[in-house]
Amino acid sequence: MGKEGTVPGKVWSTVPAGGKLVIIGAAGRQIRREDAVTLALEDAAKKAAFFHGIYGYTETFVQSGSAYYDFDSGKSVEFVYDEEYIKYVDRFEFDEKQDVFEEEDSVFVRVRFDASLVSQLSFRPTAAGSTPEWIRTPPRDMGGYTAGVGFSLRHSYYKDAVIASYEAAAASILNKLHSRAGSASDSLETGGYSDALTLEMQVAEGFLTEFYVLEIWVDPSNKSVWTLAIAKNGGR
Question: Please, what is the average pLDDT of the chain?
């Protein structure tokens, strides 16, 4: 990742190397730097748990009607994964002098994780200083992997935007693999006035395995975060 304390450009590529996953963990700054590193390692361990398998549920709804206050929308996302993910920390390899870096109010740690399930990927990392093509053009699936893109607006804490972005990428893949949609209509009569309401809902529920982040891109203009990730269908 470059010299300690800096982030080289705005593209963070984490393509597997030497048969090992490359994972970036994020944490907020702490009074003691070692405490921030510990928290960042725990976030990396959470991503390792995602790789081994997650159950996900997403729900998106839009309600509309003829009256101004009839419109409503919402989205919820939930993931279930190995709650004992801290165990992966002991399996990480990293050099604190080379793999710990800071940006704004956050601390990041790059680790290598030996995972025998890693497959060969046909993916060319984005050049430093460039905007990834996968932001403009929907990414293609790669072999047995489904690709997805996650997006997060700037958060109060930079690390929260990074985390929200990769979770959004997982939700994107889940929606590709396990989505189902439905709609319902209803009519209300109030004081001789009729109001037709329509509810449209999309739900995705299922399992993903080998979820893995390939690249993270931070928009320098507004600090929004984009994440490209892949995963395999683990069934329902």
Answer: 82
Q: Is pLDDT of 83 > 60? A: yes
Three-state SS letters, the chain: CCCCCCCCCCEEECCCECCEEEEEEEEECCCCHHHHHHHHHHHHHHHHHHHHCEEEEEEEEEEECCCHHHCEEEEEEEEECCCCHHHHHHHEECCCCCCEEEECCEEEEEEEEECCCCCCCCCCCCCCCCCCHHHHCCCCCECCEEEEEEEECCCCCHHHHHHHHHHHHHHHHHHHHHEEEEEEEEEEEECCEEEEEEEEEEEEEEEEEEEEEEEEEECCCCCCEEEEEEEEEEEC
Q: Please state the pTM of the whole predicted model.
A: 0.81
Decide if pLDDT at 186 tops 70.
no
| For residue 73, pLDDT beyond 60 | no
